[in-house]
Integral membrane protein (Acidimicrobium ferrooxidans), 150 residues
Amino acid sequence: MVAPTCSLVPMVDRSPRTRLRRFGIASVGALMVELAFGLATNALVHIPVHDPWGGAHPGWVLYVHAAIGFALLVNGAMVVNTAIDSGVPHALGAAVVGVLSIIAAIGAGIAFVNTGAQHQILSVAMALAFVVALAAYIALWQAARRTRVA
């Protein structure tokens, strides 16, 4: 018996290059959401010096910002893994720069909250790490988009 040549279910491209391209654009989108919550945290949240994590008001904005940061870290590890398999030139370098920048932003953010928001340079470091991660994931997405499969 011969298998049918057409299917009602469309073929899904699961190649590492396609996954990398999707990860790149999803990472950029997630970073934009993280930026929005970072700005909201900066504008709306009061972080007291004596109890920075427990006394933040409104704390839910800060906690959502932190949760998105953690999700970006997990995503970054998945991007590095996909970049290794993809064969896309410069993808691994961009993925590593992206995840290291997210780690730097998380470290600066934790330090910023732990000091009760007293050291604004930590907020600047968080923002600069965000910019580097954004540039890395845009570069990754573009590299995966331009690379042709042989």
In short: The first helix runs from residue 16 to 44.
